[in-house]
Amino acid sequence: MMPSSDNIARARAHSNIAFIKYWGNRNHNLRLPANSSLSMNLNELHTTTTVAWVAAAEADTLEINGRPADSAALDRASAHLDVIRRRLGIQSKAQVASTNNFPMGTGIASSASAFAALTLAAVAAQGGELSERELSALARMGSGSAARSIPAGFVEWHAGDAHETSYAETFVRRDYWDLVDVIAVVSRRHKHIGSSAGHREADSSVLQPARVAGVAQRLGDIKAAIRRRDFELFADIVEADSNLMHAVMMTSRPPLFYWDPLSLSVMQAVRNWRAVDGLSVCYTLDAGPNVHCICEAADAAGVIARLKDLSEQIEILQSGAGPGACVSPTIPV
Ligand code: DP6
């Protein structure tokens, strides 16, 4: 059922892949991250969300891909709507309908695009006009990585030390460097521990302080690599940062192992394709077994062909850099 009201708006936001990862919070309630991070929006993977504020409604409702959401998803969305209600000074409940254009249950993160689209649609439906910075900070409260799905292109999230100073902004435009994320979906199994629970475990690893201490250097280096379009330097940092985050995960208590055997096969193969075949490709993994193969556009076809040769089990999604979140009266849900 589509929401119906005058106070209605629709927004689209894209998923993003982090090159410098967000893992761990210094303040869980405000989702103030342990470190700054940097990502690329994904043009082909997006969420479109319609929000209607309905004064007469007794409770928030949420539909995802045409079906009522489960109670965990509704509770999380409703908690975020509470934050938005407080910010906008309203009491109305919301009817929310959301669709993802990417396959659910592939372990491809949807919380970033979901909370960015929800935030923007909810604010727009009230006629609110917040700055991009404020929208990013607000989206962060729903899901940390959603802060990075508000601005366009290649995006840096400044960790900050308060709500107002923890927000993301564009580092360079999406057309600055023609990078493609070739996602090797190696398993459709659901995450045993989602990122929100994982962030709470980060500090139990003795390696987390070392990972966090090195972020400023890696962030500076990767920004230089992107500015110069220096793929070798970029690849070194992206893989090191992903390995460091997974080292923290594996040494947390209890330990978190997100990789499948096939994830490791793909990671090793990617390094060979770069070292031996000369392809501009590197890997990065989030809180799941799927491997994001980041490559220069000219090498995407070569990477896809090699992934298909490696295993019949691998399904492939691909995307170039994407725009920021936008309100649209015309996008069909
Ligand atoms: C591994 O943003 O999904 O993908 O704030 O609890 O929703 P919540 O966490 P989330 O964490 C993302 C973790 C990551 C790394 C990254 O995207 O930077």
Account of the 3D structure:
With 333 residues, the protein is an alpha+beta fold. The protein has two domains: 8-175, 2-Layer Sandwich (Ribosomal Protein S5, domain 2); 179-320, GHMP kinase, C-terminal domain (Alpha-Beta Plaits). Helices cover 35% and strands 26% of the residues. It is built from nine helices and 14 strands. Strands 1, 4, 5, 6, 7, 8, 9 and 14 form an eight-stranded mixed sheet that branches. It has a four-stranded antiparallel sheet with strand order 11-12-10-13. Helix 1 (71-88) runs antiparallel to helix 3 (132-142). The radius of gyration is 19 Å and the shape is globular. It starts with 7 loop residues before the first strand and ends in a 6-residue tail after the last strand. The relative contact order is 0.19. The model has no long low-confidence stretch (mean pLDDT 94). The structure holds ligand DP6. Ligand DP6 binds next to helix 2 and helix 4.
